[in-house]
Each structure stands twice: as C-alpha cells, then as structure tokens.
C-alpha cells in the first residue's frame, strides 16, 4: 500500500513540475494597434513582398516587431528591413505612443523595455534572425533612454554579435 502512495506522490510531483515548466515557457504578448502602426505595417509589407505577417507587440521586458516571411530573405534584404524597422522603433513618435503610453501603462514597474525584431520563416518555430537592443541611459540626460547598440542572433550564432545601426559591417 505504501508503494502505491509513493508512486502517486511521484506522479503528483511530476505533474506539478510539468505545469511550472509550461507556465514559465509561455509568453503572452499584447498586440499594438494605432494609425502609425497600421501605416508602418502597410509600408513594410509593400516594400518587402516576402513578408506574410507583421506583428508589433509587447510583453515584459520587450517591445517587438515580429515578421513571418514566406522565403528567407538574403543579407541585403535583412539589412534594409532592419534599418526600416529600427528607424520606426526608435522614432520619437513610437517611443511616445507605444513605449511611454501603452507599454508603461501596462507594466509601470518594469522600467525601460528592450527592443527586438524577429524574422521567422513560415512553418518554422524558431526565428531565422533576431535583433535585440537593450536600453541605455543617456550620459547628457539621465532621464532620456537611448537604443543604440543592436545585436543579431541567428540559429548558427545564438550568443549573438553586434549589428551595425548604419552602413555595412565593413564600416564598423
């Protein structure tokens, strides 16, 4: 009889562990919608026909533009998409409308979010490219946050490396 109780205890512990793993692995996002976001989405999907879906969303501690593409873009297209997306995400209007208003309203105690851009190939569960940028305080104005150094992570390089904000990697 004690063997049955012991076995039931182990099963119960395994079930709790599975539930904890499931809950910590799931991230829920809040989708962002505004006229500015709608206009950006339309422009970027017009400029990059391989994009099947564009989502602008946030969760703690990140604000993200997530692209799902039909075919994997080449390096030149990725750079153009990165440049267009980061210009949008670091614009004063995006900072004011999305980060300062929507993100901070929902997560007031989380501070400044990191920014991210992901490109996922349709039908795959992992991103082909992921760019991230952590917020930094401006030296001249401590109340001002800047997003300057971006990093690229790929399936071949999950640790990531700095990615140029302008120009090519050869210019850096």
Tell me about this structure.
The protein is of the alpha+beta class and 172 residues long. The chain is built from 4 helices and 9 strands, in the order H-E-H-E-E-H-H-E-E-E-E-E-E. The strands form 2 sheets. A 7-stranded mixed sheet has the order 1-2-3-4-5-8-9, covered by helices on one side. Strands 6-7 form a two-stranded antiparallel sheet. Strand 4 and strand 5 form a beta hairpin. It is globular. The termini are far apart. The C terminus is likely disordered.
Radius of gyration: 20 Å
Mean pLDDT value? 83
Q: What characteristic shape results from the CA principal axes?
A: globular
Main sheet: strands, sense, barrel: 7 strands, mixed
- Output the helix-strand order: HEHEEHHEEEEEE
Q: Ranges with pLDDT <50 over ≥5 residues?
A: 12-25, 167-172
Helix content: 25-40%
What is this entry, summarized?
The protein has 172 residues and is of the alpha+beta class. It has helices at 2-25, 35-47, 75-89, 92-106, and strands spanning 30-31, 51-59, 62-69, 114-121, 127-133, 136-137, 145-146, 150-154, 157-163.
Please render the helix and strand layout as text:
Blueprint: H1 2-25, E1 30-31, H2 35-47, E2 51-59, E3 62-69, H3 75-89, H4 92-106, E4 114-121, E5 127-133, E6 136-137, E7 145-146, E8 150-154, E9 157-163
Parallel strand pairs: 3-4
Antiparallel strand pairs: 1-2, 2-3, 4-5, 5-8, 6-7, 8-9
Key terms:
172 residues; alpha+beta; 7-stranded mixed β-sheet; two-stranded antiparallel sheet; 4 helices; 29% strand; globular; disordered C terminus
């Amino acid at each position: 009889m004690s063997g049955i109780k012991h076995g039931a205890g182990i099963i119960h512990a395994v079930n709790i562990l599975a539930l904890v793993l499931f809950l910590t692995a799931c991230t829920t996002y809040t989708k962002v919608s505004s006229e500015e976001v709608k206009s950006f989405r339309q422009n970027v999907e017009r400029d990059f026909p391989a994009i099947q879906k564009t989502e602008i969303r946030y969760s703690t501690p990140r604000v993200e533009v997530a692209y799902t593409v039909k075919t994997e873009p080449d390096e030149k297209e990725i750079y153009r998409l990165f440049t267009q997306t980061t210009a949008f995400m670091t614009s004063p209007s995006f900072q004011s409308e999305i980060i300062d208003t929507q993100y901070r309203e929902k997560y007031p105690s989380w501070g400044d979010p990191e920014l991210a851009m992901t490109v996922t190939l349709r039908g795959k569960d992992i991103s082909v490219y992921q760019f991230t940028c952590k917020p930094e305080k401006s030296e001249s104005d401590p109340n001002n946050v800047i997003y300057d150094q971006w990093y690229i992570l790929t399936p071949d390089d999950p640790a990531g490396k700095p990615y140029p904000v302008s120009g090519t990697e050869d210019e850096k």
